[in-house]
Amino acid sequence: MEESIESGTSGASTPPSRPRIPYGRVAYPAIGYKMGSRQMVTTVMSPVTYVGTVGERESWDPLQGTGTNRKEDKNHRQAIAKYVEETEDYVLNSVLVYYSPDDAEFVADDAEAPISTGTLYVRPGAKAKVGDGGHRTSAFGDVIQAHSHGDEVLRRLQENGQPVNVVLDDDQARRAQDFTDLQQNAKPLNASIAQSMDRRQAINKMLLEEVLKGGRAPVFEGGKRIEFLTDSPGKLSPKLTGFKTLRYATGTLLVGTGPRSARAWDEAVAVEIATAGHDEALQRMVDFWSGFGALPSVATAVSVPSGMVKLRETTWLTSANVLYALAAAVRDVTDGTGVTIAQAMKRAAAIDFTRAGSTFHGTLVEPAKYDEDGNLETKEKALTGRDAWEGAAGKLAAKIRQS
User: What is the Cα–Cα distance from 44 to 179, expressed in whole angstroms?
Assistant: First the structure.
């Protein structure tokens, strides 16, 4: 039978008794509160300590009713580990774990307060079950194991804190429901917001600080013509394109269409900027977007009220797929040749980008079909996807070379 200790003193004025805590429990300073009927506790541990407190990752098994995690994404796990390992000032959200009430107990400093500081007492050897944060947990473990010999990375993790939200509940069905609720209630950032916030990537920083804010490409009016809050401007928006599209078209200009995944694309663009040098890469960006702004339809649109609305209605030049195709075509025409980006963009002015034209028929546009009597059978249809815009890029490159 476990020995017990009880706080309190003898004498006439005995303070209120505190719950009896089994001897040897591991104590963590914490804040306790309720969400509904369940006791919740928030504490902080170093990542090294935290990894030692959790059990093996449990994938969801609906037949057995066990586990609360989705199938592990190894690339996601590796990306988090790389981020933690290489970024001194990293930021990660809290993880959510569960303890059985038999394994952990919270003792509040003020038993009457709905929210109170206190102590979380955990049975030695008890392993928490991760409800949300499995990839973060595994990534921490990978970094710790890789640096177990002891170095600056391990020291940093020993001194850093990881917030942990603890639920004292051993009901597996409720744990699974919690996981579902968390995923449904979470709203990830759209790409334009997330990418414009990420200044660690050289392409993002160059576009934001020098091409847009620096005014190097007048067509964007210091960034006023770029949509950051959504990935695509609305039909009546005065903005030309979203930051996501601006970024991907610019990167495609630099590296072409070789990289087939987002991660490979990010790496290829970073390497190209580093290899070519900041000034050279920036000049390519500026030449392309300045040339784009000089295209007759675009130049007219930015010079008159509601011009962008008309540009969107009458041409394909605000289409993300067309911007990708044009960037890929210019890359194809200029890479390893004597043709400059500025020259290629001047030649592109002769291309018919109007919706009434046939430039993109068979690639980005499936033209309308008529029967023998001239009756419409199927309406014109815009096509999307990588195959479509890469096909369009081939056509644009051929036209630029012919000009």
Answer: 21
Identify residue 325 by its one-letter amino acid code. A
Q: Which residues contact 118 (CB under 8 A, 6 or more apart)?
A: 30, 31, 32, 106, 107, 108, 109
CA distances from 100 to 13, 94, 166, 343, 355 (A): 35, 20, 10, 69, 64
Alpha helices in 187-339 (DSSP H): 191-197, 202-206, 243-255, 262-276, 278-294, 296-301, 307-314, 320-334
- pLDDT tens by residue, 142-185: 999 999 999 999 999 999 999 999 999 988 878 878 877 887 77
Nearest to 142 by CA among 47, 266, 59, 264: 47
For residue 147, how many other CB atoms are within 10 A of its CB? 16
Question: One-letter amino acid identity for 306?
Answer: S
Express each pLDDT in 325-345 by its tens digit.
999 999 999 999 999 999 999
Q: Report the DSSP beta bridge partners of residue 117.
A: 31
Look up the pTM and report it: 0.72
Q: Residue 49: is it exposed, middle or buried by C-beta count within 10 angstroms (0-12/13-18/19+)?
A: middle
Take residue 385 and report the two structure tokens written for it. Answer: 């996807």
Nearest-angstrom CA–CA distance, 121 and 205: 47
Return phi, psi of residue 92, to 5°.
Answer: -130, 145
